[in-house]
Amino acid sequence: MSGENIKLKIRSLRKTYGSVVALDSADIDLRDGEFLTLLGPSGSGKSTLLWAVAGLNDPDSGQIWIDGREATHLPPFQREIGMVFQNYALFPHMTIGQNIGFPLEMRKMNRIDREKAVMRVLDMVKLGHVADRYPQELSGGQQQRIALARAFVYEPSIILMDEPLGALDKKLRDHLQLEIKHLHEQLGVTIMYVTHDQEEAMVMSDRICLMNNARVEQIGTPEDLYFRPNTVFAADFLGESNLVDGVIREVNGNGASVEIGGAGLTRALPNPDLSVGDRVKLMTRPEAIEVLGAGESRPNEVSGILREVIVGGGATKLFVELQGGATMRVTQLTRAATERLSPGVELRLGWEQHAAVVLKHAELESEL
Amino acid sequence: MNTATQDGSRAPSRLSRLVTRHGRIAPALIFLALFFVMPVSMLFGLSFLDSDGALTLEHYQRLWDKPVYLKVLGITLKTAAWTTVLCILGGYPIAYLLATVAKTTRARLTILVLMPFWTSFLVRTFAWIVLLGRKGAVNTFLLDIGVIEQPIKMIFNFTGVMIGMSHALMPLAVLTMLSVMEGIDANLSKAGSTMGARGGQTFWRIYFPLSVPGIAAGGMLVFITSLGFFITPALLGGARDTMIVQTIIFQIKEILNWGFAGAIGVLLMVAVLIIFFVYDKLLGLSTLSGGEATRAASLSKNPIGYVGAKVGGLFTRGMGTLCEWIGIAIGRLFPRRADKRRADGGRIAIWMVGLLMMGFLALPALFIIPVSFTESGFLGWPPQGFSLKWYQALADTPVWINAALRSFTVAILASSLGMLLGVPAAFMLARSSFTGKGAVFAFLVSPIIIPNIFIAVGLFFLYAKIGLVGTTIGLILGHTVLAIPYVVITVLAVVKGYDQNLDMAASTLGANRKQTFLRVTLPMIRSGMIAAFMFAFIISFDELTIALFVTGGEVTTLPKQMWDDALLRVSPALAAVATLLLLFMSAFILVSEIIKRRAAKRS
Q1: What φ, ψ does residue B341 adopt, rounded to 5°?
Q2: What is the C-alpha to C-alpha distance for residues A164 and A76, in angstroms, rounded to an integer?
Q3: Does domain A6-232 have CATH number 3.40.50.300?
Q4: Does B328 share its domain with B257?
Q5: B354/A181 Cα distance (integer angstroms)
Q6: I want to staple B83 with a disulfide (CB 3.0 to 4.6 A). Which of A80, A320, B187, B226 is the partner?
Q7: Cβ atoms B494, B522 nearer than 8 A
């Protein structure tokens, strides 16, 4: 990471509310121009972390460095950050122009420059004509764009976004996701984004910081998190996954052999934390599993009985009961009814070695 | 034949439709028409009649000729204006604190504001006499520590009136402002600070402008209520602090000049309306419900509002900048350190001011308690020895016992009647839509906006004609007029918050109308109903103005008896009554608050 400019550095940050630990030992580096998403279920600490960066809550311990300057306990107005709130937080008694001009006014910019800057960002979000209206007169999507414009107009060091699209309907959300992504690319700003929507996180982020139980679970590119999750939680939270109980029988350089109950040995990517004899979960993605025809073979194969077929639009889900009793889900593209398999038949399933990941057993993990 | 049957069958159906349509709201409307509109308009009508019943303007001529009445109006306006200013200045920090603390803390602290709000005006006024009198607690304390050598005159002058009235009405200002402040999104101030605004700037530029509708509404309520005040000025003021209502009472009780009393009443009403109009143009009271944008937009359309908005903008900008400079100066003196936690000085200051003001509201009444146990025959501080003789004296005086019993009976019956009339009306307002709904609502709640004195004097006049003066029935009917608005407002809120899908669910599950109401609706809204009843009960139990006119001789109520006694001499016996009343009312308020909260929790 040397040579890259670190915009935000968070070290062992901890925040409690009474006896509730809302955030614990968080370590994060945010690079210049990066789009990092804090992803996690509600109560996982992602908003607490974001608000601590904004200075809207006061952490118990740990440090926050913004642009190489310590900011841990500085008030928000001394941090040079921008923030977009879920409910937009547009000032209802000010016009759109006054709203966007507010941060500039606080920075003592003169009226003429201010008006120019306001018009510039309004054009950027394609709402040049609304400067004299009041927030309530705009639609939800327009208000969201104004909130973005207000955060971008003073070019803060980092822009924080707290579930900014949470209140919008699906279609508008998809549209604005791309718009935010484009603004990010165009302007090269650094963004820390909070969402509980894994798809949104996958679409928008350079990196995702997955959070669970007040802790950082895993940080990595969307690709990392999807294909190489570190924990059962990560595997389960992002996308669909098959998690089958197993025991490690052998570990060597390029993989591990895992015995899954009654279904024989399979090979998977190695996991340096685990050794022979450990009870594990074998994770596979449903779309990485193939139903094998006669004569086809894959490095890993199991057989089982097809129990249920569910057609959900473009994809069809097959539920296959393995010999040991575990069920695996397989996702296929939907085919015409005549070509579809029917429940009761015996199937052979197969997958590549790199499609399987060995994870620490969740129950054991929680005991540690 | 055929047509006759058709007509015959059509008529009752039309009638029943009429009954179902208006049956729920008509009784309340008719009742108010009879016992509110009619007496009040009769009173105003009298002002245009001479003693022979001929049309005349002589009363108004006299009003104009005698400078004393305009002067009294001036005093009344001045008193109301200062009371409003003090209530807003003192109440704002309380409301701000309550609006910005955690919900559970708010619930607890709000009781500190509600208790004095519902504690009898009379009791609280006595408390100030105990505290501020020549031999009161404050003077005794200051003399003892040697700060002063002579007792300071703090009551029986304008200072006393101001203390008493701001104390009496500040809870009203707080609660009104709080209801607006609770609706201000906390994220707005936070958003301001992330954009670089210091605490002072976020407050003056963001929070304060958004709380202005609360200030306007609270100020208006306090102002109008103050105009109708006479208890506090009479007991805590001097001869020069006479309010206009006192002159009306004097005209009727002493001189029996109804027409002239009516003319003074009209003068007051006209003053109220003018002020209301200007206030509205200036601060946009009527667009309160329309949201901030409509308010701002409608204000800029009229010249007064435009100037008001401009001046307001300059004011908040100036205050914001001033506070920013102060913040920067403090920042220079005590630089913020990024690596150290620091207590938020501004927040601590708000807590201190807020708690101080809440202490001002909640504590004085408590001084009544010790003096009621004094052995001395005079009301002085500190109380001498310990004795129950004043309580014994009460128990031995049938007047007090009867007054208490009558107050109780009247309150129970008036609030029951108020419920009977108000609840169906509230249901109708909440659930049906009909033309003139807004007007009907305004009409049903108007008895609490019109100064009580008009209702009292009007009823006195009406009752004199139909022989209800001095009767318990007359008093009950009068109190019902006041109970209806409170019942309507409380029940309306409860019913509006009730999800009607539950009723529909019940009916799809096989419950008939009656079963649905008894098994589903009622259990859900019961607490709200009880709260409405208790609300109405307190209104009646504590009511003095109507009782003052409508009762007479033997038929007296607790507040009336206390008032009569207080005019003669504020004695320890009165302190004993006040103590009992204080304890009873406090228990009552606590119970009703608990019931209300339980209801709120469920929905």
Answers
A1: -70, 145
A2: 19
A3: yes
A4: yes
A5: 46
A6: B226
A7: no
Do residues B282 and B196 both lie within one domain? yes
> What's CA A62's distance to the chain center, in Å?
24
Residue A1 clears pLDDT 60, i.e. is over it? no
pLDDT at B6 over 50: no
Q: Do A54 and B206 lie within an 8 Å CB cutoff?
A: no
Question: Model pTM?
Answer: 0.85
CA angle, corner B77, sides to B71 and B82, nearest 5?
125
Q: Do A135 and B191 touch (CB under 8 A)?
A: no
Q: What is the ipTM of this complex?
A: 0.82
Please give, rounded to a whole number of angstroms, the shortest distance from the CA of B416 to a CA of chain A: 43
* CB spacing of A73 vs B342 below 8 angstroms: yes
Task: Find chain B residues with C-beta within 8 A of A150's C-beta.
Answer: 195
In B, residues 268-327, which contact A (CB 8 Å cutoff)?
A: 291-293, 296-297
pLDDT digits (tens, 9 = 90+) for B165-224: 999 999 999 998 998 898 899 999 999 999 999 888 999 999 998 898 888 888 888 998
pLDDT at B356 over 90: yes
Task: Go through B136-160 and write b for each residue having 16 or more CB atoms within 10 A of its CB, e for each that does not.
Answer: bbbbbeeeeeeeeeebeebbbebbb
Instruction: Please tell me chain B's helix, strand, coil percentages from 3-state DSSP, rounded to the nearest 5.
Output: 80, 0, 20
The residue among B312, B329, B364 that closes a domain is B364
**DSSP track, B226-270:** HHT--HHHHHHS-GGG--HHHHHHHIIIII--HHHHHHHHHHHHH
Is B201 part of the contact surface with chain A (CB cutoff 8 Å)?
yes
Strand partners, B49: B55
Quote the tokens at residue A58: 């006061």
**What pLDDT is recorded for position B601?**
67
| Closest partner CB to B338 (pick from A74, A80, A92) | A74
Decide if B190 and A85 are in contact by the 8 Å CB cutoff.
yes
Q: Which stretches within B101-181 are classed as H helix?
A: 103-118, 121-132, 137-144, 158-181
Chain B residues touching A76 at Cβ < 8 A: 190, 193-194
Task: Kindly determine whether residue A93 and residue B210, on different chains, have CB atoms separated by under 8 Å.
Answer: yes
Flag whether B251 is in a domain: yes
User: Which residue intervals of B467-571 are DSSP H helices?
Assistant: 472-496, 501-508, 513-516, 522-541, 545-550, 558-568
Tell whether B337 lies on the interface with A, counting CB pairs under 8 A: yes
Per-residue tokens: B258: 């109804």
pLDDT tens for residues B406-454?
999 999 999 999 999 999 999 888 888 788 888 899 899 889 888 888 8
User: CB distance B293–A136 less than 8 Å?
Assistant: yes
Asked whether residue B48 falls in the same domain as residue B184, the answer is no
Question: What residue ranges do the domains of chain A occupy?
Answer: 6-232, 240-367
Q: Which of B187, B205, B341 sits opposite A89 (nearest CB)?
A: B187
Compute the distance between CA of residue B478 and CA of residue B470 in angstroms, rounded to an integer: 12
Answer yes or no: is B318 within a domain.
Answer: yes
**Cα separation, B260 vs A99, whole angstroms:** 56
Residue written as tokens 């009511």? B543
Q: Which domain holds residue B427?
A: 25-56+383-603
Share of chain B above pLDDT 70, in %: 92
**3-state secondary structure (DSSP) of residue A81:** strand
Contacts of B297 in chain A (CB under 8 A): 134
Would B19 be classed as within a structural domain?
no
The three-state secondary structure class of A133 is coil
φ, ψ for residue B349 (rounded to 5)?
-60, -40
What's the structural domain count of chain B? 2
CATH topology of domain A240-367: OB fold (Dihydrolipoamide Acetyltransferase, E2P) (2.40.50)
Query: What residue in B sits closest to A150 (Cα-Cα)?
Result: B195
Q: Which of A309, A298, A296, A313 is nearest to A339 (CA)?
A: A309
CA pair distance B81, B449, nearest whole angstrom: 17
Say if residue B52 is in the same domain as residue B69.
no
